[in-house]
Amino acid sequence: MFLTEQLALLPEYQHTERPFSREDEEQLKREAAGRIRAVQPLLEHLVTFKLVRTMKQEESGAVKSKNLLNIRLRKEFLRVLFHHVAANTVFFFVADYALQPYVRIIPIDVERGPLVPLPPELDSVLAAAVSAFKAKHGISSEQYAVPQQPGDRVTVPTLPMALAQARALPPDQFAVEMRIATAMYRDKMLITHVLDLPRAQADIAAAGKARNRFEAQDKIHGPLRCVLDFADIRATR
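RESULT FIELD:
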């Protein structure tokens, strides 16, 4: 056991002369995941675990190290616009990483995790989730897109066509997005009213190298960390 009930490292592991071994680090992460799973199984699939080692120089000049476990919400879930719960599955509707008028739909089984690819028997459940999203935000005449590679999408007019396209790809690349008309996206999506959308998009596009682009996205999306309503999610346990 490495952790306290509050998911902090036990005192004997906070200050170690040597970094953790890879085996110990993996065991620590499994322990943290298990603790979170016991509280709410879904949360395990929404966060990342990272063991970090900080160094601090004391007044005496000595350098003291401290080990910490960071638990962070996955970046894609910083941009959640809507979620729908059905059939022990949560369908997250997530804003595009570059704030273009696309909404990615991420299905996560509360117990098993991301459903990649989505089982065909859940197609009707996905359609109901899409209808709920459209009704809440007043979306109509949308299209659907299937990412092929970064920055490249195939657009089709219906959800069944998008599912067929997505299932033709390698299983681990399965993804479906909703393509909303630009004017409607700017009018209906709250995120576009919180941000200066054209400037945010320009900042991301101008960031250049991949690492810098993601840093720009973090700066923009950071203030939008979503407080999800887990009342419905708890009901699926």
